[in-house]
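This part of the workshop introduces the protein records we will be handling. Backbone structure tokens are a discrete shorthand for how the chain folds in space. Once this layout is familiar, the rest of the handout is easier to follow. The record below serves as our worked example for the rest of this section.
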Amino acid sequence: MFVCHDGLPYEAAAAERALWAKAPRPTTGVVTMYLPTEGPEAFDTAERGHRAFDALSGKAPADRSRTDTIQPAMFDGIRALLEDQTVTSLVELRHKFVVQAADELSRRRAGIERFGVTLNGLEAAQRSLVQAAQRIELDLLWGSSRGAVPVPQHDHFRYLDLPFAPADRLQELRDWWQRHCEAREEWTSARS
């Protein structure tokens, strides 16, 4: 399914030969054409899928088969990020006190005082979650990075000077925001 989704061919080389066999053969001039990106003739898309899955399965192209699976080690790194103590502590806090999935007795045993939530702890948990999402998106879903911070399609500081911030300090706020976004984007390129 990783390679052959949406009707892509498993045998990319055979699909390539078939496509070029029926391509126009000009006697003069140049013919241009687009390579298909979907369907049974999309050999290049299928071959890129094979290369990505070869990396996930740890197989050489000559050794690949339809029964190959993703190496467990690929999931270990993601699992480690999701099982980071800062993340699991926040998950337990959410279960016990925010979502109210626990009863009064279990909440009393958990004791909110033991969670000690800090901004540094929240940032560490956010870093782990961003890096886990990045690995899933890039390594497993064959996607592209969407970055760590959503980019608003408008000026999100517009009118902030009215009730919230002095107009003469808006540039300072913009500069801080830029540094904040750059620091988060560094998380997406970090590999642990």
Notes: The radius of gyration is 25 Å.
